[in-house]
Amino acid sequence: MKKIPRIALILIIIFANIGCDQITKDLARKNIEYHETIQVIGDYLILTKVENPGAFLGMGSELSPVLRTILLLILPCIVMVAVGVYLIRNKQMSMINLWALSFIVGGGIGNLYDRILYGQVTDMIFMDFQFAHTGIFNMADVSVMVGTGLILLEQFLPKKKKEEAQLQES
């Protein structure tokens, strides 16, 4: 089997994350009423639709419209473009970091798309583990968290000898 070109892999991962996010949000918008509770796995996994004008857990929703636009739309757009350029240009990046940053960009773009189109982000997933619970989130948030988790995971993996030699020469 032929190896997928690096840029194609990056684009596939990003667009797969955006697609998964937008499909689930569209389904939620069309099939779930606001604050309706749909138990998927008892009280452990619940679907409920909310619109979030802020960022993570509603942070920033009380900001002025100008500040909210700068912090939740313009700045994230700049960051997504910068990370996308970094992904494409840095050919020495590990495969784990490539996947991680692609997931983060895909999730970021998914939520930015909502903010641009609707002025807010649709969230619909709630998890309760009895000892702790999440806020209401969406698949874009999952993408960002998976990407972040991959970056953290790589920090605990053994480094290759070649990388260690390069560090020692520096």
Give a structural overview.
This protein is mainly alpha-helical and 170 residues long. The chain has one domain. 60% of the residues lie in helices and 11% in strands. It is built from five helices and three strands. The chain has a three-stranded antiparallel beta sheet. A hairpin with a 3-residue loop joins strand 1 (38-41) and strand 2. Helix 1 packs parallel to helix 3 (95-118), helix 2 runs antiparallel to helix 3 and helix 3 (95-118) runs antiparallel to helix 4 (139-156). The radius of gyration is 18 Å and the shape is globular.
Oligomeric state of this protein: single chain
Mean pLDDT: 90
The H/E string reads HEEHHEHH
Count of separate DSSP helical elements:
5
Intertermini distance: 38 Å
Which range does the strand content fall in?
5-15%
How many domains comprise the coordinates?
Answer: 1
Describe this protein with a few key phrases.
60% helix, 5 helices, globular, mainly alpha, 170 residues, three-stranded antiparallel sheet
